[in-house]
Amino acid sequence: MTRIVAGEVGGRTLKVPPRGTRPTSERVREALFSRLEHQGAVDGARVLDLYAGSGALGLEALSRGAERADLVERSRAAAQVVAANIRTTGFGDRARVHTTDVRTYLLSRSGETMLGGDVDLVLADPPYDIGDQELAEVLDLLAAWIGPEALVVVERSTRSPEPQWPGHLVLEDRRTWGETAVWSASPAPGAGPA
C-alpha cells in the first residue's frame, strides 16, 4: 500500500501500477520531503515529476504545499493510475499527467512548460533500466526548464553510480536511506539555456 505521508491529504491511499514501477517507500518520501521542506523547496513550488510511476512524489509535493505539478510517465497503464491518483487526492486543478517518454516531453516544449513559468523542483526517479547516458541527457535537457533557484532531485539504487551532472547543474547533497540513494543538485551560477 502506498499513501501520501503528510500535508493537505496526508494518509490518502494511492493506487500503484500493477507492474513496471518501483514506488518510493513512505520512509524515503518522509525523509526526503522533510529535508526539502526544511530547505524551503516545496511550498509554492512548480514541480516536474519525471518517471512518475504512481505519481507519489509529485502528489506528495502538492499535499505539502507545492503550487502545481506536471507528472510525466511513458507507460499508458501507469499514467492512468497517476490520473486516478490525481482525482483521488483532489488535485485535478493543480496537477497534469503527460503520457510520454521523459526525453520526448522535455524536447517537445522547447523550454515552455505546462506550468506557465520556470520549474522550481524536479523529482526524477527513473527505472533501474534507464542507462547512465540517458539520465545524463535528461539532466542536460532540464537547462531550459528550471529557474535559477531550482532544485533537481534524482533517486536511484545505492548500487547505481552518481548521475553524470551536466555543466549547468552542481551537486549539493547526497543522502542514502536503506537501498535508496538521493542526489540533489542546483543550477550552477550563471547557468541557463544556451
From TrEMBL:
It comes from the Bacteria. Signal peptide: none annotated. Transmembrane segments: none annotated. One of its GO terms (molecular function) is 16S rRNA (guanine(966)-N(2))-methyltransferase activity. InterPro entries: DNA_methylase_N6_adenine_CS, RNA_MeTrfase_RsmD, SAM-dependent_MTases_sf. Its EC number is 2.1.1.171. Keywords: Methyltransferase, Transferase. The keyword 4Fe-4S does not apply. The keyword Amino-acid biosynthesis does not apply. Pfam families: Cons_hypoth95 (PF03602). It is an enzyme of class 2 (transferase). NCBIfam families: 16S rRNA (guanine(966)-N(2))-methyltransferase RsmD. This is 16S rRNA (Guanine(966)-N(2))-methyltransferase RsmD. It comes from Schaalia naturae. The gene is rsmD.
